[in-house]
């Protein structure tokens, strides 16, 4: 199981991640926490984000600390 | 897992939170309780809320103590 | 977790509650029981209900003792 | 939790109950069994049912012993 | 819980049962097995079935041994 | 529970099975593994398949070893 | 249960896999991790992929390390 999903999240703490949701929205922010259900906490990301880096030009920034319930998550790009 | 989702909810008790629901509605109120399923209890918030602060001008205020079942929650902004 | 969801339900026993369902219906009745899945039992409420108090003029009264399965519940206003 | 949902089902054994399903159908029959998932068994009900008593004129009678899987149930009126 | 759902399935082994699925299809066959998730195994039923007996003229016969995953089941008529 | 669903899968190992999916697709291949969630592994089936035998002329063959997650499965015909 | 689904994933580590998602998208990348929920981690795959080999000409490459939550997965072709 090398490089397990939760290990990858642990390694992404304090980094910018892009979260694709089941309702079609994509958001990005700084990963500040998560749990075993893949519930995640995103903080506003003050760094300048190059949208090309995000890989998804439609991604919206998180503006306030937000908990996303894991069952809405399609994927998390780190 | 630093800053885990339930820890963030614990820290937001008695504060105004905005809850986005799977049916597209967004509501806000004062967080008065929660549990491990992310079921939350919101009370009416008597403070004057600056909608700009909420980040979502379509958010509706909770008018009476309301339990929201966790499986309807997309995200909680604290 | 102060004011946890199930504690709020316990405190609402024998009171009128309004239950919003995932299919869009909203019903109200007297809460006579619940369990840890948020399955609830509503009885007909013989008191005169002021719809303004319910907060939702489209809410329909429960006419006979009804068990609502918890996974249909969006929210319960107490 | 007084009057818990499963206790109400226990009390309704051998009585006519009306079950509303997630697909919009409503059926009625004599409750002959249930389990903790709210799976229920309905038998044909030979008594003459006054539809006004059922509260739902669109309810269809169960004609043969039928197991309804609990995750299809919206509500059970006893 | 008298006449519990799984007991009713146990009693229906080797008999013709009609299974209504969430996708709207209804199938019938001889019940040859089941488990606690209400996954069921149906075999082709070589007896002549009187559709009036099935209660559902749209029911389709199972032609080869088929496992139906329980979470697709709305109801099983025995 | 005679002829339980997982026993039927065990007996079908190395045989051609037809899997109907919730999205409407039907695929067939040689069953090379499964687990208790009804996740299944299908391999390409090099034998000549008579579509009449499959019972479903729209079934598509699996071309490379494929894991199907169990919660997508409607039924498995063996 | 020979050739169980998770064993097949274990054997596919560091190889190119194609993942079909419930929203209709299909993506491919190098499998770098997974867990028991079939959450998977895909890395960008720098090798030249012959689309004929993928079996699905609509499959999109993963461009950055991405965690896909298992409940979105229809199938994984290895």
UniProtKB/TrEMBL annotation, chains A, B, C, D, E, F, G:
Molecular function terms from GO: RNA binding
Enumerate the SUPFAM superfamilies for this protein: Sm-like ribonucleoproteins (SSF50182)
Coiled-coil intervals in this record?
none
Q: Which residues form the Sm domain?
A: 4-78
Which superkingdom does the taxonomy of this entry point to?
Archaea
Which Pfam families is this protein grouped with?
LSM
Record's protein name = LSM domain-containing protein
């Amino acid at each position: 199981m090398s490089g397990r999903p939760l290990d990858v999240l642990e390694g992404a703490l304090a980094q910018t991640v892009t979260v694709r949701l089941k309702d079609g929205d994509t958001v990005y922010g700084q990963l500040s926490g998560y749990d075993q259900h893949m519930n995640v906490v995103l903080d506003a990301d003050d760094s300048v984000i190059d949208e090309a880096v995000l890989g998804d030009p439609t991604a919206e920034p998180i503006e306030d600390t937000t908990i996303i319930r894991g069952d809405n998550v399609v994927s998390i790009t780190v």
